[in-house]
Amino acid sequence: MDWVLVPYKHQNLTWTQHGFNERIGEIEKIGKDAFSRLKGRWGCLKKRTEIKLQDLPVVLGACCVLHNICEIMNEEMDDEWKFEVFDDEMVVEDGACSLDSLKARDQIAHYLLHHGRANTAFF
Fold first, then answer.
1. One domain, residues 40 and 52
2. How many domains is the chain built from?
3. Are residues 107 and 81 in the same domain?
4. Same domain, 101 and 112
5. Would you give per-residue pLDDT tens digits along the chain (123 residues)?
6. Which is nearest to 115 in space by CA: 23, 2, 4, 10?
7. What is the Cα–Cα distance from 40 to 76, expressed in whole angstroms?
8. Are 78 and 49 in contact, with CB atoms under 8 Å apart?
9. Are 84 and 38 in contact (CB under 8 A)?
10. Are 32 and 85 in contact (CB under 8 A)?
11. Beta carbons within 10 angstroms of residue 71's beta carbon
């Protein structure tokens, strides 16, 4: 899964690594909130479905399009509708990342720090 950016997990992080982890955490929160609203709005996404596997992309796409229309139109959403997305968490196993993906993560972390995008508490 080379396309998944994962936070640094070892002890004694550098400022660059710490800043990267903070940004990843912010992005993860935004993503979880978006999926929470999406699942809250469309109940069929909250549970296992009886939809045929080959039809699932169409149903998911329709839910996403309709959800985005609701978001653009500032459609009210009751907080009770929000759905916990803890079941969607993906844990990447240690050693599952390629050297290329680790190098890409390091380059992104370096860019964030040196271009004022890290927002780290150290500064």
1. yes
2. 2
3. no
4. yes
5. 566 778 898 899 998 999 899 988 998 898 888 888 888 888 888 778 788 888 889 999 999 999 999 989 998 887 777 666 555 555 555 556 788 888 888 998 888 888 866 555 544
6. 23
7. 12
8. no
9. no
10. yes
11. 14
Give the structural domain span for 47. 28-90
The tokens of 88 are what? 């969607």
- Smallest Cα–Cα separation from 42: which of 63, 68, 71? 63
pTM of the model: 0.64
Indicate the burial class of 26 (C-beta count within 10 angstroms; 0-12, 13-18, 19 or more). exposed
Q: Does any domain span residue 22?
A: no
Does any domain span residue 72? yes
From the list 90, 43, 41, the residue with the least C-alpha distance to 69 is 41
Shared domain check, 55 and 108: no
